[in-house]
Amino acid sequence: MGRVLVLVGLGIAGIGVLIMLGLPLGRLPGDVVLRRGNFAAYVPISTCIVLSLLLTLLLTFLRR
């Protein structure tokens, strides 16, 4: 369990570094922003798909 927590923490830190370096995570084409007066909704469709693919590949690699 400890090893998994360390890997998760390193993964989160790695994503943070990539965002600080300018990776446009959260502003990809296909992410929807709805603004109506005082209301704003953000639906990160493309970002969710990209993160899902990356996590699937990473976890598949780690299982082997």
Task: Describe this structure as you would to a colleague.
The protein is an alpha+beta fold. Helices cover 59% and strands 16% of the residues. The chain is built from two helices and two strands. Strand 1 and strand 2 form a beta hairpin. The longest helix has 19 residues. It is elongated. The model has no long low-confidence stretch (mean pLDDT 86).
Give a brief description.
It contains 2 helices and 2 strands, in the order αββα.
Reported for the largest beta sheet, the result is: 2 strands, antiparallel
Low-confidence stretches: none
Q: Strand order within the widest sheet?
A: 1-2
Counting DSSP H or I runs of 4 or more residues, the number of helices is: 2
- List the secondary-structure elements in sequence, H or E: HEEH
Kindly estimate the percentage of residues that lie in beta strands according to DSSP: 15-25%
Oligomer: single chain
Cα gyration radius (Å): 15 Å
Shape: elongated
